[in-house]
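U., I forgot to send this yesterday:
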Amino acid sequence: MTAGVSVVGGVRRGTLTLDAELHVEAGRTLALLGPNGAGKTTMLRLVAGLTPLDRGRISIDGVVVDEPATATFAVAESRSVGYVFQEQLLFPHLDAVDNVAFGLRCRGRSRRDSRAAAVRWLERVGLGEHAGARPRHLSGGQAQRVAVARALAPEPSVLLLDEPLAALDAVTRSTLRRLLADLEVTTVVVTHDPIEARALADRVAVLEAGRLTQEGSPDEVASHPATPWIAGLLGVNLVPGEAQGTDVSIDGGALHLAEPTDGPIWVAFEPNAVVVHPGRPAGSSRNVWRATVTEVTVEGDRARVLLSQPAGVAALVTRGSADELGLAPGVEVWAAVKATELAVRPR
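Result:
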């Protein structure tokens, strides 16, 4: 077994069955993405020792900490893991310094040494001047930074972050990103934000319904989404089809590829590659189809236009074009996309 975190196995909790294999190299950061109820927080709790496995094995830096088959289970307090929850869970009767020092005191360090280390960590997260403040006098972002400092003060081997940036302002987010980049600690961060994942992580893993559906670098996942949920998160169109050569049969029609392939595939393309016309366009594009506008959402100077065919496909047009074309739910249009804009992934 190697350094870092390794989870192989699963657990059943209520209606969720989590069964996944996850590995994070020592000193690297993995972002865990997925819809609500997919098992992301359960995965963190498994690593932290707050939820035991039903089957499989978890190791941290080569040491097995949970293995039901051998009755091995290291309690949370004995694992070198720092955990920042969505709710900061600060002690309301303690000031910021004593909240951060708490974990150090539990590990046997003196009150004086613990408080001195806590002050240094508060300074690193930009809260040195708030060391004496109690949680009720801190903003949500400040309280979250105290929670991060508390998790890092014992210098854990593994840091677990559950939506760590949700309560932070832009300046604090930048400070925390720099801090995490400087630390040589194996990190797993749960997030719903692909931009946050790209900013923080070396690799991205996606959990859906308790299963790992994709893993790779942020660029790999962004350029080749493996499931409709990932594509939707990234704003990419993803259409299932059956390919034979350069022809792809899809629900209600067909698409044509620039390069031949065969078998069940996903066809991915960016919304800004879809051109919307009021009538059938002239030209050489083979990928032209008729559709009905089902929804129009204005996003700044752009408008995102959902089409009935293929179901759920979106086009991104300028707000001026949307007004000029009179795009609104129920309007009939023609859509076109070049074959060179289509990317293919096995299904």
